[in-house]
Hints:
The structure holds 2 protein chains of 2 kinds.
Chain A: H1 13-16, H2 31-40, E1 45-49, E2 55-59, E3 67-72, E4 82-89, H3 97-106, E5 111-114, E6 120-127, H4 135-155
Antiparallel strand pairs in A: 1-2, 2-3, 3-4, 4-6, 5-6
Chain B: H1 5-9, H2 29-38, E1 43-47, E2 53-59, E3 62-69, E4 79-87, H3 94-102, E5 109-113, E6 118-126, H4 134-156
Antiparallel strand pairs in B: 1-2, 2-3, 3-4, 4-6, 5-6
Amino acid sequence: MKMKTLTGVAVAASVMGTLAAGADRVDAADPNTISQFFFDINVPTKLSTDSYGDPLISVRTDDGVGYAIFFYGCTDNANCTHVQFYRGYETDGQVGLDIVNELNVEHNFVKLMLDDEDDVIILMDVLTGEGGMDPIDFDALYGQLNKVVEAFETRVNWTSD
Amino acid sequence: MNITWLAALGVATVTASSAAADNLLASDPTTFSSFFFDQGLPAQLSTSPTGDPFIEFRYEGEKYPLFFYDCLENEDCLSVQFYTGFELAEPFPLERLNEWNSGERRFLRAYLTPENNVVHLEMDIATSSDGISARDFNDLLLLWVDRAREFEAFIAE
């Protein structure tokens, strides 16, 4: 049975208050709005550029692993239309496609795959849309991503070094 | 390669207001019905076996489902999902599905349910509190139709 929910949020209710009315909409066209979202929920980020010159945000989560946020649909490296959360694990073939497939069966919005080196990659694409997205809605999707990450790590008894 | 996503799809423009008030919301399925009508696409709103809203629409004659998810007692849904599935005579290799999932095919997820040997392709769209504009939903719809056809050919290879 699918465990699908956008009601799960990444942060405690006490921190959610910082996303109340007045918080800027989250918009791939303006990477600073994404940095601001993570600042508002007390998560460190670093804004840089990728090898194509598009924006790139590194998110540092409590376990020190974090996410990379890639930007897509950009015009001349700006005004991007959507982002992709990316988290990789150096599983080196130790986690098979059966587990990857099981998690893809069970969870919406987030996709798992094995890359060319048989490492598990977890991805979530977010279209922030015209005029950006309400930060509450962005937070719900971020919560879903964290939920799937937790489900994966529990499934394979993952411990970060 | 740095090409704009919309340009790559050759997306036709949608003459729709960008005002938030006109956004499509899973919590109000008639907003999707109206969208399909405005686009000249036949669509039928009903309920799924679980009691949640369900829309079946036609695109160039083909029928496609649109499921509603994250509902509370069959109402106030938070997301919709484009879906297609194919029941196969033989087990489909997970390596091939991984190849599909590994490509530059964003917003999509393919998986296998081994108990019935069905391969599934899904695109989840969160509408949550704000909804999605008609323009953005149309972009995703066009992407979906392209990818669904590509997927059908992919699994037949």
